[in-house]
């Protein structure tokens, strides 16, 4: 009897791409069914401000709908579908879940362990996309690309941006601080080296690679990084330790006139404190791609500040991200069906 695989994708992580990669990795003798969710055309649920579903974060789909679709499938491949404890109790045949994300925030991991369901993920799937986007974000702020663009669209020729007291600085003369040295943070370090800037890294849980040490990258404490960096870019995970850790105290320690970049997760930042730091001029500017509440409210105060660039959580969005994640998930399916150990167990 062929194994039954349920695929819940969306309009970014296309179910058809998942299915194509799984068939390529495992052959055609599989019972595959697919469901396409409407994200990102419709927003997902965010549990950071209080989850509606057993503490899960960043998910899409109602439990009854998801359970009905999965049915008697033994394997689930998904991007955003939630799997909570109460859902697992209604899915007794489910034995394997592949989540095409860097972290299984839409899965109750303790419940999965209690039900002997193996969960795997796809770490680093969007590392290249986010790292490249981060470099673009830094340049947009430090070289006044956003400021010049907004003025010109409004009919104003900002010749004053060429003035020595107003123009931007080159990355080669700046110090950039990377908070978090995982798949994305380490990739940002690699890209920044081409600009010749001084690079600082703050991450208490990892050591720098030998190559980065040889290239002059410094591993420092967060407080030192904040005080020395002209640009601070966040690449940490959301944990109890890092939730809102960029708050008033941290922002006060940041070098006056520095720039803050957040392409990681919204809950890392205290946005009221960030607003005040930007409005007062203590921070030179900020570029934010992620927020504690998404979509952001239309009357959100940060939308009205002239020294901040905002994008709708698109740093990790690239065509390559889709194919890399689908390929990783397919390999995990193949290994599970072959009785081999997983590469990326959660």
Short description:
It holds the Pfam family 2-Hacid_dh_C. This protein has helices at residues 15-26, 63-70, 85-88, 109-114, 127-142, 145-153, 183-192, 210-214, 222-228, 248-253, 271-279, 319-337, and strands spanning 4-9, 31-36, 75-78, 96-99, 118-121, 175-179, 198-202, 218-219, 231-234, 259-262, 285-288, 308-310. By secondary structure, it is an alpha/beta fold.
Description of the structure:
The chain is α/β, with parallel strands linked by helices. It is 32% helix and 15% strand. It contains twelve helices and twelve strands. A seven-stranded parallel beta sheet has the order 8-7-6-9-10-11-12, sandwiched between helices. The longest helix is centred in the C-terminal third of the chain and has 19 residues, at 319-337. The chain is elongated and about 70 Å long. The protein starts with a strand and ends in a 9-residue tail after the last helix. The mean pLDDT is 95.
Break the fold down into its secondary structure elements and pairings:
Blueprint: E1 4-9, H1 15-26, E2 31-36, H2 63-70, E3 75-78, H3 85-88, E4 96-99, H4 109-114, E5 118-121, H5 127-142, H6 145-153, E6 175-179, H7 183-192, E7 198-202, H8 210-214, E8 218-219, H9 222-228, E9 231-234, H10 248-253, E10 259-262, H11 271-279, E11 285-288, E12 308-310, H12 319-337
Parallel strand pairs: 1-2, 1-3, 3-4, 4-5, 6-7, 6-9, 7-8, 9-10, 10-11, 11-12
Helix pairs in contact: 1-12, 5-7
Protein name: 2-hydroxyacid dehydrogenase
InterPro entries: D-iso_2-hydroxyacid_DH_PdxB (IPR050418), D-isomer_2_OHA_DH_cat_dom (IPR006139), D-isomer_DH_NAD-bd (IPR006140), NAD(P)-bd_dom_sf (IPR036291)
Domain D-isomer specific 2-hydroxyacid dehydrogenase NAD-binding: 136-315
């Amino acid at each position: 009897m062929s194994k039954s695989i349920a695929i819940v994708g969306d309009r970014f992580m296309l179910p058809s791409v998942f299915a194509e990669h799984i068939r390529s990795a495992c052959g055609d003798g599989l019972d595959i069914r697919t469901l396409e969710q409407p994200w990102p055309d419709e927003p997902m649920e965010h549990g950071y401000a209080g989850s509606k579903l057993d503490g899960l974060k960043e998910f899409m789909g109602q439990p009854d709908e998801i359970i009905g679709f999965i049915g008697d499938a033994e394997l689930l491949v998904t991007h955003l579908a939630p799997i909570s404890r109460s859902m697992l109790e209604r899915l007794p045949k489910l034995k394997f879940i592949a989540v095409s994300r860097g972290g299984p925030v839409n899965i109750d991991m303790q419940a999965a362990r209690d039900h002997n369901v193996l969960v795997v993920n796809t770490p680093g799937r969007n590392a290249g996309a986010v790292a490249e986007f981060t470099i673009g974000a830094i340049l947009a702020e430090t070289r006044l690309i956003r400021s010049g663009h907004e003025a010109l669209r409004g009919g104003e020729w900002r010749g004053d941006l060429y003035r020595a007291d107003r123009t931007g600085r080159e990355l080669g003369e700046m110090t950039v601080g990377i908070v978090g040295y995982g798949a994305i943070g380490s990739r940002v370090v690699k890209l920044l080296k081409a600009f010749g800037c001084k690079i600082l890294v703050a991450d208490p849980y990892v050591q720098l690679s030998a190559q980065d040490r040889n290239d002059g990258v410094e591993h420092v404490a967060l407080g030192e990084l904040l005080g020395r960096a002209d640009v601070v870019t966040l690449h940490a995970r959301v944990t109890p330790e890092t939730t809102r850790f960029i708050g008033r105290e941290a922002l006060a320690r940041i070098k006056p006139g520095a720039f803050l970049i957040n392409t990681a997760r919204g809950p890392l930042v205290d946005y009221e404190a960030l607003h005040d730091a930007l409005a007062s001029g203590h921070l030179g500017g900020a570029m934010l791609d992620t927020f504690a509440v998404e979509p952001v409210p239309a009357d959100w105060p940060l939308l009205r500040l002239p020294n901040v660039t905002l994008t709708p959580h698109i740093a990790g969005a690239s065509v390559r991200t889709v194919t890399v994640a689908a390929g990783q998930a397919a390999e995990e399916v193949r290994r599970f069906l072959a009785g081999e150990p997983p590469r990326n167990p959660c």
